[in-house]
Write a structure and sequence with these properties.
Two copies of one chain form a homodimer. Chain A is built from 14 helices and 13 strands. Chain A is α/β, with parallel strands linked by helices and about 400 residues long. In chain A, the strands form three sheets. A six-stranded parallel sheet of chain A has the order 2-1-3-4-5-11, with helices on both faces. In chain A, strands 7-6-8-9 form a four-stranded parallel sheet, with helices on both faces. A three-stranded antiparallel sheet of chain A has the order 10-12-13, covered by helices on one side. Chains A and B meet through helix 4, helix 5, strand 2, helix 6 and helix 11 of A and helix 4, helix 5, strand 2, helix 6 and helix 10 of B. Chain A binds a DNA duplex (16 and 16 nucleotides) through helix 2 and helix 4.
Amino acid sequence: MTDATLRDVARASGCSVATVSRVLAGTRPVGAETAARVRAAAAQLGYRPNHAARALRSRATGTVGLVLPQITNPFYPTLVRALTHALHADGRAVLLADCDDDPEAEAEHIADLLARRVDALLVIPAHERRSREAVAAAAARVPLVLMDRGCGTGVADSVAVDNATGMALVLDHLAAVGRRRVCFIGAAGTASAAAERRLAYESGAAALDPGAPDRVLLGDFSAEWGRAAVDELWESGPRDGEPGPEGEPGRCAPSGGGLPDALVCANDLIAIGALQRLQQRGVDVPGQVAVTGFDDIPMATLSAPGITTVRQPVSELAAEAARLLRRPPQDGTRPHRTIRLAPDLVVRESSAARRQSGHSARNEQDMTAQQDVTAQQDMTAQQDLTAKVEEAQ
Amino acid sequence: MTDATLRDVARASGCSVATVSRVLAGTRPVGAETAARVRAAAAQLGYRPNHAARALRSRATGTVGLVLPQITNPFYPTLVRALTHALHADGRAVLLADCDDDPEAEAEHIADLLARRVDALLVIPAHERRSREAVAAAAARVPLVLMDRGCGTGVADSVAVDNATGMALVLDHLAAVGRRRVCFIGAAGTASAAAERRLAYESGAAALDPGAPDRVLLGDFSAEWGRAAVDELWESGPRDGEPGPEGEPGRCAPSGGGLPDALVCANDLIAIGALQRLQQRGVDVPGQVAVTGFDDIPMATLSAPGITTVRQPVSELAAEAARLLRRPPQDGTRPHRTIRLAPDLVVRESSAARRQSGHSARNEQDMTAQQDVTAQQDMTAQQDLTAKVEEAQ
DNA sequence: GTGAAAGCGCTAACAA
DNA sequence: TTGTTAGCGCTTTCAC
């Protein structure tokens, strides 16, 4: 049994295909009675518009391409979920492409999606530099929004978490629970998350301790690195009490000797690895050392103790991306928008104040430091005015 | 600048659109020289076929719908990755829909995907019973493969892990490392994973201990439940040494008293919750109690100790699903295929042999020897010899 | 082996 | 407000 077409509906309702099209697409005003008749006939025949025909004619597929570096990155599923929901709410379907962190695969996927005539693209670039060419080329053809990561300057609109604010929330919190000897375990490189979080730490940590900004260890965004960093600190770092030698920058170089009382990790994976290795070494978390993460991936709740972290405003990020894609196509080269949304701090046991040394059996008490909604909007608006924003180098 | 069309290529290469189409689609034999000329012209113009037009004409979109209950379920990202790769290798694009565990949303997404003329559907049903209607209706219109979960009998082809084999691997392994007093922490309900894993435990555990098949606790597939189950066992269960009262079925009812020396969990989330609560109670894992999971989600590696678990053969599952979708459409009502693929056991520290136990398999003795803080490696390679199917990775 | 022509189902001009 | 007409870019008969 073949599907009903517009013509079938037209015949059944006794009017022309054009009228039926107008009723069903809501493009033009149509007489109430006719409209009713058309709708009845359509329902009766179980009419389903053929998107392929519609796409061919109207040059719009109602489809958005979503290009990810690796869906197995633990932060992305949440984001993908929010994005698909936001886009489906707009009546758009989502074509998914996973690039396996390979910029060449990414370029191919982008080309394929373009050939499939997606109306727009949402891209989390696989590589800060090597993704740029393909992304820029695509952005010239369809509306394109970069998410989470950047890929050079002035390529396209972008939406991401405000890393600086997030890091500031962490540092404020650590100060409030009396931590001073903080140390940053981050990721090397110039990608936005790595660089911005590191810079935010370096500029904010001085408020806790003059030596803190120099206590920085850089690796990558993995649990493996979190473990290694703790080993580095606890093995080659100066012992508690004895004044340490002046360390090189890039190593953890406590100005007054002693081990850190808080590890600020650039993401949750690092934090999980660090936490794990601390526990294996018999270090009490949070009793002796607090540990914080970034992103609030599902695992951050599941570890024991749960990890204090910065929750990315996933729904808002998705909504903002969807909004950018809804905007009418550009007349000429309007400057790109860079939208940064303020995150929340989620306080869990890994950063509890020292006296309540942590084996509270209740793991689920996430205390969300609720961020003022107005402030967040202001943040957005403010950034909107700054049309062009340079990536931190 | 508008895209080049077939006509453009035809003009540039001095032949008809039909010929160009045949060259580019490879549908019919074409003179070698003409073909070369066409290809050159196409490349020169940067020709990209318009999929919408192609779809309209050939009634095939080259697109597959992937319908998920919740992409945030930690097992799915890996599966989605494998599926998209397998499908992209076939030149198909993937339309993604996330249903938020809601069968009604699922039905809508399926209808939408059908309206968008997907060539086929891949569905992980949100609900064993309530997904059935929409799935069956869709299966009547396009090739449809169920993955991971079922939804009633005889609805469509399906591909899933062989839960029975997986559970048998776990029980064999526990026997080999000298565990006898095993207890199952599973999920209630009739959904395939829940029911099959439970049944496999019940029929396989007797080999370890006559009372084992009755030691079954049922909740859901969450870490929360894993924690609760441990509380139930350690609080209301009989103390070590004292003979316990005959317990009701559904509770853990050790026939000879005493706490379990191994917790067989129906998935990794339960295992993570159980492990966590055991540690909070000061129970040594694996010293006193072994813990095993199922699925091998990323978190299973990240916990300390790493969790011994059953790794789903994700690439093979994806390949098999893609293969089913490639098959030509059915003539009449051929019976549906149900494909079950054997998984591997991944031995990690959570089930290491106790040092005092004298007679364990060689593998596990090696394991024990390596079990210091730095031994974090999966023992997959060795176990592969025991497992019934080798991974093609 | 190649070309001409006829649509796939729909929307957008242009008339009425 | 409604109908008529012309395609969107492609594949696929059918001729040659």
